[in-house]
Design goal:
Length: 285
């Protein structure tokens, strides 16, 4: 009679520390990918610089009469910061399609951790990468008339991180529904480009046509861009009339939406997108 031995298998009990470590590992992987992909880093740095110096310089002579003497590139600076985060974060989120193509996503999802930890780590990684890349634009502030104020820069980086987290979560939500790499890029352009143009990053939110006012107010990116512009414009010297034109804030009818409430909108949108992404990945993989 032969003796059958049964191997002892120890299953880790779910815990907050275990899930946090899993999210940290995914975040660390994003940092490693970012540090090794120098071509991607360079390419995503060039685009915001073109917007700031080429587009800003070219349009400055045409719109200078409406800026109260303020350099148009100064007005454009917060928007360009936001756009640098927007594109980097969206591609970080949609990169999950590559992970699915090469089988790495399935390896992560079969690990003894929750899908929420994996998606959260991915969002934190994408947001960190996008925020780091925005520093390149931020250090050029003095060239466009924005003072080097350390408190302002710290506030801007925090706001950009929140924005990047929201956009990475959106990219993940899109990647949950896309199965092929070939379909990912057109979909990102289809979604991200309208978010950029309808956020007020490239134009003031004052004196817009009624339909455009409604659309910009429905765009969650508007509530992420406006706090960045508000923080920057607080440090600028300009007339009240120019400030009312260039940074009128966001209004719901006759109610001026305070900056803290705009940030709350971004946080709620981020939580909703993150929850939806977790749900889609849990069902589709």
């Amino acid at each position: 009679m032969t003796e059958t031995r049964i191997a002892n298998v120890r299953v880790l009990k779910p815990s907050l520390a275990h899930e946090a470590r899993a999210a940290l590992v995914v975040w660390e992987r994003e940092m490693i990918r970012f540090s090794r992909d120098r071509t991607r880093v360079f390419a995503q740095m060039v685009q915001p610089l073109l917007f700031l110096f080429v587009l800003g310089g070219g349009l400055g002579s045409l719109v200078s009469h409406g800026t109260g003497g303020l350099d148009f590139r100064t007005f454009l600076f917060p928007g360009v910061l936001s756009m640098s985060v927007l594109f980097t974060a969206s591609f970080s989120g949609i990169s999950m399609v590559w992970d699915r193509e090469f089988g790495f996503l399935r390896e992560m999802l079969v690990a003894p951790v929750s899908t929420a930890s994996i998606v959260l780590g991915k969002c934190l990684g994408g947001a960190t990468v996008a925020t780091i890349q925005s520093i390149v634009v931020l250090v050029l502030a003095g060239l466009v008339g924005v003072p080097y104020d350390l408190l302002m820069m710290a506030q801007v980086l925090l706001l950009l991180f929140l924005m990047a987290f929201m956009i990475t979560a959106l990219g993940l939500l899109l990647s949950a529904r896309v199965k092929q790499v070939q379909s990912a890029m057109p979909l990102v352009q289809l979604i991200i480009t309208p978010l950029m143009f309808l956020s007020g990053a490239l134009f003031p939110l004052s004196n817009l046509p009624p339909w455009l006012t409604v659309v910009t107010h429905l765009n969650p990116m508007t509530y992420a861009v406006e706090p960045v512009r508000h923080v920057v414009f607080e440090r600028l010297q300009m007339s009240d009339a120019a400030r009312a034109t260039l940074d009128p804030g966001i209004w719901w009818g006759s109610f001026a939406v305070p900056v803290w409430l705009q940030i709350v909108v971004v946080l709620v949108a981020s939580a909703g997108l993150l929850t939806a992404a977790v749900g889609f990945f849990s069902r589709t993989e």
